[in-house]
Amino acid sequence: MFDRNDLLRNGKLSNVRFEKQGNGSLRTNNVNATGYSPSKANGGDGSEAESVGNAHIHIANGVGKVVARSAIFPEVSFSHMTLPATVMDWKRDGATAKMATMTFLIHGHVEISTADNQILKRRPGVFLIPPETGDVVFKTSAPANELIGVSLSSRLFATILPDYKTYSMMGQNSKLDVVSLQPLLAFVVSACNLNNQHSQMVDTLETVANDVARSLLIACFGQGMSVMPLIERVRKYIAENYTDSALSVAKTAEHENVSVRTVQLALQEADTNFTALVRRARTEAALELRKSQPSLTLVEIGDRCGFGSVSSLRRALKIHEEMEDDGEEE
Length: 330
Fold this sequence. Notes:
Order of helices and strands: EEHEEEEEEEEEEEEHHHHHHHHHH
Shape: elongated
CATH architecture of the largest domain: Sandwich
Radius of gyration: 25 Å
Strand order of the largest sheet: 2-1-6-7-14-9-12-11
Largest sheet: 8 strands, antiparallel
Oligomer: single chain
Structural class: alpha+beta
């Protein structure tokens, strides 16, 4: 529900806690670091509602307390909230509008609505607000409610569910196995309660946080999706980007939202390496060009296929010919 903290790009995990008692003032532990600026907004019934970032919070009858914690990573944000009967008006604009957010009702009752009616639902109590969705209204009506939020950047969301509308329609009416989600949600809650850190542990936490968000999204809204093994996704990415002379393991890992080490292990398990896969993709493209356009020079072919030099192209063609003579495959 909340904006990303760009400070994390410098290796900082930010945890934010805010608390609002009845119609009293809002207290937060980290306003300046996260850009959350408490302010007042009309509550819709003549009373005032507290505003945190883009979320305006109004406690029904001024009774009860809202307590929320969040953990904010570069592409994933977690939030954990306990609240009474409350109305939250979330203005989605700018970077916020581009994020996808899953909301999990742990106990209580919540209604989530948007003007464009774009929210997807799974029983019991799981909601998905896709990227580019308009303003959202949350209404909790039980005396005590608990919600968990998981937000993903549009880039990360697209790599996990490139066609979420098709996939999600297959399982929206089926009931989720909530027991299988509990370990993942427990990690979200734990992350929201960590202290701010400037250590190598943040990198590990970021990787796990991305994996948890991915697993929750697939489990809840990826029905019917064939999850392609990482090695096949790497091959596909290379096939689509071999013309990039700067193509690398690091670029591929970033695109797949995994670590370089994870890509290397997947390649190792497939008994191959990144250089061989890229060379093969470029060589096959070069051979096809030489066949279809014989007037092209080696310089032109090498440039179109991502080879850094003619000598690199010649070496690749030689390796290909030798392997063909030996009847081997890369």
